[in-house]
Design brief:
Alpha-d-glucuronidase, C-terminal Domain; binds 4-O-methyl-beta-D-glucopyranuronic acid; 21 helices; TIM Barrel; 11% strand; 15 strands
Length: 681
């Protein structure tokens, strides 16, 4: 069978290491299914399929445990699990955690997967399969795990006509035309499996640039069919809604959140939603951002808007994810805006509102300092929003494993409660007394056979899910897990490929916008470079706004002499960012406008360093090509050829980025290319 990437990391290949394989064959001969709830049935099916593939042997299904049984369940659903007395351990693991342990049951060695809920059992089953797929010895297995973050949610920017905003992997997975009748479409189940294997417990199925029609009965009936499919996988369905829906759907003259008629409209609609989807998760809202309607259109603020929706959802246990991605052309510095709008509202949001904040203050750039709202909103539930889809990373043409970006965000120190107050800890609920926290990622799967189009976009989806479960994982550990399951466990494959996983994101920074440059994209498509000074159109949509390159220097002054955005951070960071010498060089030009001759740590001038970084980025892509070619024998032909061809595209684009940016900056500063620079292609 040709490998087309459809199975992602759930390939369940026979264990290549023969010694380990025979060990697995002895340890896993059968599964004992407890009750038959839909979720436990899924766990049983997954274990049977997975173990059959991994061991290469048939997996029996006896009623009582024998040697080599996998026994799984909750203490309620399984008398065997109950007899193992795991209660103390389970008590500490909440609803979704699990225990996996090798035990003796009536003198027979078995493997137990125990949890407090069926979905915890499902997560434990996927975890066991992950351990086996990565060739972990499990004879002494004793592990337990519970998710760090409460809401682990994927966001789709799918329009109702199936075009996916920033998707790059075909049409939307949701085939509205055949729903609700054809809910057995196997892709829906596989989609849910993929997410559940990571512990993802929510999905927002439609674009934040929302179509009001999603709340009509016509679409609710279809959404409900999807919710039915996702439910046994522990995945709740959420919808993005348009703030002025009462106007668009029912001819209201206003959508003022303080108007009782408007409030009533939402209460009734929400009630309807719960009739269709009894365990509906809630709403995601983009308001007063990029032309979307919002409470400010009626002279109200974000809290007024969010609270009105929250009130309607509250009786049913739903939440509102209210996005903090706001900016307007009138604002002097786009960096400042979300903080300036949201900080005064800290403490004003209802308990079931979660403010969803992109990792950086601008917009999913290849590198951003963290948004200063993290560590500042102390009395408002928050969620971190990441982007798996590669809007700013070369779409689905470039290889860019974003594990390093995601961990950079999670490990960023806000200093909110002194040193070590990382965003990861805040999201894990260890710092402030939040009622809810969340992590969301905009993902891009479409009807492309392998879901994401570039096979390596899968790795960022994987990294997101794993990190939402455990914010302390490292990007290299996750990258290795992913490589092993998705391609091969062979160390001659893993070792060189780990380097690709480590450098691909940085390469993308280097050939596009090194040293803290940002947003040099052509307007609209966000793919290629357009650093030039385009004076037409919205200033904050042109590159000049971000790089401010003039004859004397380059960079955006966000210190006291400029927009003073650095004041939004806690003192330690404000102080650090005040001085270019103490600002990390990889974000230097985010905060400082510096002369072209400014001296860098390397001893090079800023101009020389910039050129050097652009060259490095191109060289890194060439390195990735060589590495990929060196692992040819370990990869199936189809994926090998595809990635190889895409790396050629990437190299072409990297050179284009370098040459466009360097030539433009050179036209501004009039400086010669540093000695030894490669000639433009
Ligand atoms: O990244 C920008 C994108 C828009 C997107 C917006 C957002 C959904 O260019 O396409 O709209 O962010 O996050 O709302």
């Amino acid at each position: 069978q040709a490998e087309d990437g459809y199975r992602m990391w759930l390939r369940y290949q026979p264990t290549a290491d023969t010694q380990l394989r025979s060990q697995y064959q002895q340890q896993f001969t059968n599964i004992v299914q407890p009750g038959d709830s839909p979720t436990l049935q899924l766990a049983a099916r997954e274990l049977a399929t997975g173990l059959r593939g991994i061991t290469g042997q048939e997996i029996a299904t006896p009623d009582t445990p024998t040697t080599g049984s996998v026994v799984f369940g909750t203490p309620e659903s399984s008398a065997v699990i109950k007899s193992l007395e795991l209660n103390d351990q389970l008590n500490a693991l909440g609803d979704e955690g699990f225990v996996i342990a090798r035990r003796e049951y009536r003198g027979k060695p078995i493997t137990a997967i125990a949890a407090n809920s069926d979905v915890g059992v499902l997560y434990g089953s996927f975890h066991l399969l992950r351990l086996l797929q990565t060739q972990t010895p499990v004879d002494q297995l004793a592990t337990q795990s519970a998710p760090a973050v409460e809401h682990r949610v994927v966001n789709h920017w799918d329009n109702l006509n199936r075009v996916v905003e920033r998707g790059y992997a075909g049409l939307s997975l949701w085939d509205w035309g055949t729903l609700p009748a054809y809910k057995d479409n196997p892709r829906y189940k596989d989609y849910a499996r993929i997410n559940a294997s990571l512990g993802i417990n929510g999905t927002v199925i439609n674009n934040v640039n929302a179509d009001a029609r999603i709340l009509t009965d016509q679409f609710l009936e279809k959404a409900a069919a999807l919710a039915d499919v996702f439910r046994p996988y522990g995945i709740k369905l959420y919808l993005s809604v348009k703030f002025n829906s009462p106007m668009l759907l029912d001819g209201f003259e206003t959508a003022d959140p303080l108007d009782p008629k408007v409030q009533k409209w939402w209460q009734e609609r929400v009630k309807k939603v719960y009739e269709y989807i009894p365990d509906f998760g809630g709403f995601l809202v983009k308001a007063n951002s990029e032309g979307q309607p919002g409470p400010q259109d009626f002279n109200r603020n974000h809290a007024d808007g969010a609270n009105m929706l929250a009130e309607a959802l509250e009786p049913f246990g739903g939440v509102v994810f209210w996005r903090a991605f706001v900016y307007a052309p009138e604002q002097g510095d786009r960096f400042r805006e979300a903080y300036d709008e949201f900080m005064p509202l800290d403490g004003k949001f209802k308990d079931n509102v979660i403010v969803q904040i992109k990792n950086g203050p601008i917009d999913f750039q290849p590198r951003e300092p963290f948004s200063p709202l993290f560590g500042s909103l102390e009395k408002t539930n928050i969620a971190l929003e990441l982007q798996v889809t590669q809007e700013y990373f070369g779409f689905s043409y470039h290889l860019a494993y974003q594990g390093p970006l995601f961990t950079e965000a999670l490990n960023a120190d806000t200093y909110a409660k002194g040193e070590g107050t990382t965003i990861g800890k805040i999201l894990a609920g260890d710092v402030f007394d939040y009622k809810h926290t969340g992590m969301a990622a905009v993902i891009n799967p479409g009807n492309s056979r392998n879901w994401t189009s570039h096979p390596f976009v899968q790795s960022s989806w994987y990294a997101f899910g794993r990190l939402a479960w455990d914010v302390n994982l490292t990007s290299s550990a996750i990258g290795e897990e992913w490589l092993r399951q998705t391609f091969s466990n062979d160390s001659d494959f893993i070792q060189p490929m780990q380097e690709i996983m480590a450098i691909s994101r940085e390469a993308g920074v280097n050939y596009r916008m090194p040293l803290g440059l940002t947003h040099l994209y052509a307007q609209g498509h966000h793919y290629g470079p357009a650093p030039w000074h385009d004076k037409s159109g919205r200033p904050d949509w042109t590159a000049y706004y971000y790089h401010q390159a003039t004859e004397d220097g380059i960079g955006f002054d966000r210190t006291q002499s400029g927009s003073n955005a650095i004041e939004q951070y806690h003192d330690e960071l404000t102080n650090k960012f005040t001085d270019p010498d103490t600002t990390p060089e990889d974000i230097l030009l985010w905060f400082h406008h510096l002369g072209w001759n400014y001296q860098m740590n390397s001893g090079r001038s800023l101009w020389q360093e910039l050129v050097h970084k652009y060259d490095t980025g191109v060289a890194q892509v060439e390195q990735m090509q060589k590495t990929w070619e060196s692992v040819k024998d370990y990869v199936d032909a189809e994926r090998y050829q595809r990635v190889k061809a895409l790396l050629q595209v990437q190299l072409r684009d990297a050179k284009h980025w370098r040459d466009a940016c360097i030539s433009y900056f050179q036209s501004v500063n009039g400086l010669p290319l540093p000695k030894g620079s490669p000639e433009p292609a």
